[in-house]
Amino acid sequence: MTDSTSRLLGERVSQLRQLQSMTLEQLAAASGVSRSMLSQIERCKANPTLAVTQRIAQTFGISIGELVDDPNASASIDVVRGDDPGTLFRADSECELRTLSPLQLEKNIEFYVITLQPGAELASAAHFEGTREMFSVSQGAATVSTGNSEVALMTGDTAHYRADIPHVIRCEGEEALKGFLVVSYR
């Protein structure tokens, strides 16, 4: 690593650790990286292996790229245009599902806007283990089912549920259902 990369890594590890109110001991226990190695990284006295850097990044729930990227180095803004046909995952007489997340980014969270016509549903197979979804109703009424659980939602309601088992969002009532879906991968 260059000196600037080593400095940036040390600063980022320290910053993220402090933001999560973690001690060096807690970060060591969570990451499997020794306390002394973490201390040396934060003080720019160590050049960690890729495996060590990966374990640290995973502990913070980010990629290695995000760990060593200088957040102040670029001021780019990614825009997802509403009329971009590439963001439309499904569009038929019953359902429109459009991503609000930049498509080119590797991510562990995705945002969607959903419109379902009366009686229509969005049925999903199980996602990766540990995946959770949050669905918030902005208009209409819905039923969300996952596993053996089912809940009715009205405008303004939000449900958080397991998505690593088959699950369904169904439009109830006479008006179209509109809402926002957040998918979180662990």
TrEMBL record:
<dbReference type="InterPro" id="IPR010982">
    <property type="entry name" value="Lambda_DNA-bd_dom_sf"/>
</dbReference>
<dbReference type="InterPro" id="IPR014710">
    <property type="entry name" value="RmlC-like_jellyroll"/>
</dbReference>
<dbReference type="Pfam" id="PF07883">
    <property type="entry name" value="Cupin_2"/>
</dbReference>
<dbReference type="Pfam" id="PF01381">
    <property type="entry name" value="HTH_3"/>
</dbReference>
<protein>
    <submittedName>
        <fullName>XRE family transcriptional regulator</fullName>
    </submittedName>
</protein>
<keyword id="KW-0238">DNA-binding</keyword>
<dbReference type="InterPro" id="IPR011051">
    <property type="entry name" value="RmlC_Cupin_sf"/>
</dbReference>
<dbReference type="InterPro" id="IPR050807">
    <property type="entry name" value="TransReg_Diox_bact_type"/>
</dbReference>
<dbReference type="InterPro" id="IPR013096">
    <property type="entry name" value="Cupin_2"/>
</dbReference>
<dbReference type="InterPro" id="IPR001387">
    <property type="entry name" value="Cro/C1-type_HTH"/>
</dbReference>
<feature type="domain" description="HTH cro/C1-type">
    <location>
        <begin position="13"/>
        <end position="67"/>
    </location>
</feature>
